[in-house]
Amino acid sequence: xxxxSEIFESVQGEGPSRGKNVVFLRTAGCNLRCxxxxxxxxxxxxxxxxxxxxxxxxxxxxxxxxHIVLTGGEPxxxxxxxxxxxxxxxxxxxxxxxxxGFSSELDEFIDQYNCSPKLEGSGNKKYELKLLPNExxxxxxxxxxxxxxxxxxxxxxxxxxxxxxxxxxxxxxxKKEQEEKMEWVEQVSREHDFHFTPxxxxxxxxx
Length: 207
Ligand code: SF4
Prior knowledge:
alpha/beta; TIM Barrel; 9 strands; 24% strand; binds iron/sulfur cluster
């Protein structure tokens, strides 16, 4: 059975689809432990509710948007169990928030990958990027300070990530933290010809 943290309708707050009405499908369990993780309630598989495929599909269908944001935790650790869910939702636009540590076995269902590799500044050990550049994939880096930026630039160079698919996002779990870093991160995004993404859900205080 799937381990699900929550399913709810809201507005995508960050990344290329920000501002869109979506259904969030948040799975439980993550292979990483970022020091600034904003979903500590979804880190362990056992923190989730056990749900059958049909229960997940029904709950998603009760929401209005036909656009799913699969997130976590790290959703790809349950990708085998997610296959039958997406088989029943073939008319939905599906985007995935992933840390990039897993290759995708769900590619036929996925319209967009928002891959956010976690670097050493996050408190995790370096790991291999498995989600390599393709036409569906965007890369989003969480930037807290100058060291994060330098590490990000090295990483982009190592994996030859295309600048037109890079987004820099300020680290910050509160509106104050976001506002303190936004101007600088926006400026360095422009300097390096990357995109900048704010976190609208934090700035506007919506879920
Ligand atoms: S990868 Fe995401 S869910 Fe996992 S610890 Fe880091 S921020 Fe939290």
